[in-house]
Design goal:
Layout (H helix, E strand, L loop, with lengths): L1 H10 L8 H19 L4 H17 L3 H11 L3 H21 L3 H19 L5 H17 L8 H4 L10
């Protein structure tokens, strides 16, 4: 498996058959993020967000994270609810289009680390782990260069080292 990822990373500029799986993974993860963001644009989610964060603060296994939730997120719950919904949507859209997909995947990783710190339940470790691994693969292989807009951006000097 490690060899496949390394081969994929070296061939992402060509868009060969060996790297098609990278585009499929990237697009799948983008669709996943858009799907999960849709419910977050509803009034019920925006109202429920502060209760969700409050529950996370009381049940998290990380004391420092409890302080962060209570002192920073809860007082600005509406802002963070919108930020979460919009962030997930744009991560998904960026991954589907292959536009700055490495940067989008890094933001997705940060979102899911945040979700794990909040939920922190052992039952969710596998789900969070698989999402994080998939996003990490997108970052290290430059998956946006395969059937994505990053292929064109990588030719521009400004974006050469970002995508």
């Amino acid at each position: 498996m490690a060899k496949s990822v390394a081969e994929g990373a070296s061939n992402t500029k060509s868009g060969s058959g060996k790297t098609t799986w990278l585009a499929l993974l990237r697009i799948y993860m983008g669709a996943y993020f858009i799907h999960t963001s849709i419910d977050k644009f509803t009034a019920s989610y925006l109202g429920e967000f502060s209760r969700l964060v409050s529950r996370w603060a009381h049940h998290t296994n990380f004391a420092w994270y409890e302080g962060f939730l209570n002192n920073y997120v809860l007082p600005h719950a509406k802002f963070f609810a919108y930020l979460t919904a919009i962030g997930e949507f744009y991560v998904g859209l960026s991954l589907i289009l292959g536009f700055l997909s490495g940067l989008a995947a890094i933001f997705g990783i940060l979102l899911y680390i945040n979700y794990y710190l909040g939920e922190g339940s052992p039952e969710e470790v596998w789900r969070f782990g698989m999402i994080l691994v998939n996003l990490f693969v997108i970052v290290v292989t430059g998956a946006g260069r395969v059937f994505g807009l990053d292929k064109f951006l990588s030719k521009k000097i400004l974006f050469k080292y970002i995508v």
